[in-house]
């Protein structure tokens, strides 16, 4: 499912990788179609008649479920071999540098699972709702599909996204530094509707969410959030959920860390206090310098990253008109503004948001400029509708230290070299 490469490594072997060309996105190319990629065939250029203009192509019935052009087959999620002990309890990263707009295509959404992909037969799917309710309920997939549904785009970000960057610049590519995020249009039933049908008792305060995979991934969710905007989702971008993202049903907890977005959802128990399983309390906390820990840091703060130019998306011209682009999101609401700096944070200009700017979703920004061909330190800074401004990495470290691997939303810096290559660096 995911392509595997040894592209990203901790410093100092980063420069060696750049020399080897791996940072330029030329990784894992293969197959006959790709042998022609980047090689111009003069016979296909005007005024000649190109090969594809001389013959009939496939008919309408050949490709019943479409996929990207064969020339795009180098694009894919990738994992990092040294990051986790086993491929079943691991993560693959969204190739942010290869996509545009606010939405992540289904096949490119990063995946994170603790016990591999559960392959559920939808006929045998059941969702149990019990505990402090008037009427315990059991839903089939058809029951859920018969309930009133809504469409909402939300970002989903693992709390560990950018976690490897706490102590300094580590991985050479936004796929690896920021690729534990995706944004899709979900179709699902507000959890509130299910809870109303069951009738929640007055002393109810918390829910336990449980997944159907071997890890179960039990998570506690405050009832208030459940009634606010949580969704029991079964479609992403119009298609049924993909198996790796929780087919046939997953939780969507808008703006909150992704570990609570329980996939392959099989049970919801209503209670009067949190369960806080051992993993929740030991892992999803931020260890501070003084040995104390930040706990229950559910909301993902505003964050952004420039996806192009970036180490995997270098600049292919020497100077002149250049389009800079990136993504921004906030767990507290809509993105209000994105600023861009070309000089490591000394001067800021306002980027152009383009496309829909939804609540708690990825917003796409652009900044067009005339590149003089010199070195630049590229940064982006997100501001959300609450007025929260994305902090620098140093500002974050002052408050949080460097012990945590979670909730790193610091400003990313890319060094654009004169030759168009881009490197992950830090400025202070
Ligand atoms: N749900 C179950 N059942 N099992 C899991 O391992 N992983 C969680 C969450 N939900 C997990 C799960 C974590 S840590 C993350 S980051 C998100 O799923 C990732 O969602 P995705 O695979 O759709 O990107
Ligand atoms: Co996660």
The fold-level CATH name of the domain at 122-295 is: Sulfite Oxidase, Chain A, domain 2
* DSSP strand count: 25
Helix content: 10-25%
**Which secondary-structure class do the elements indicate?**
mainly beta
Task: Identify low-pLDDT runs.
Answer: 9-30
**Spatial order of the strands in the main sheet?**
6-5-14-9-10
CATH superfamily of the domain at 122-295: Oxidoreductase, molybdopterin-binding domain
Count the helices. How many? 8
Shape: globular
The largest sheet, given as strand count, sense and whether it forms a barrel, is: 5 strands, mixed
Strand content: 25-35%
Task: Tell me the distance between the termini.
Answer: 39 Å
What's the pLDDT, averaged over the residues?
A: 90
CATH class of the domain at 122-295: Alpha Beta
Radius of gyration: 23 Å
Bound molecules: ligand MTE, cobalt (II) ion
For the record, the CATH architecture of the domain at 122-295 stands as Alpha-Beta Complex
Molecular structure report:
The protein has 428 residues and is mostly beta strands. Among the domains are: 122-295, Sulfite Oxidase, Chain A, domain 2 (Alpha-Beta Complex); 303-425, Immunoglobulin-like. 11% of the residues lie in helices and 29% in strands. The chain has eight helices and 25 strands. It has helices at 14-20, 32-35, 141-145, 174-178, 191-198, 223-228, 278-283, 393-400; strands spanning 3-5, 78-80, 90-92, 111-113, 127-131, 137-139, 150-157, 181-190, 206-211, 219-222, 231-236, 239-240, 250-252, 265-271, 286-287, 293-294, 303-308, 320-329, 335-341, 349-350, 352-353, 363-371, 376-384, 413-416, 422-425. The strands form seven sheets. Strands 6-5-14-9-10 form a five-stranded mixed sheet. Strands 7, 8, 11, 12 and 13 form a five-stranded antiparallel sheet that branches. Strands 20-19-23-24-25 form a five-stranded antiparallel sheet, with no helix packed on it. It starts with a strand and ends with a strand. Residues 9-30 have low confidence and may be disordered. The site of cobalt (II) ion has 6 residues, from loops.
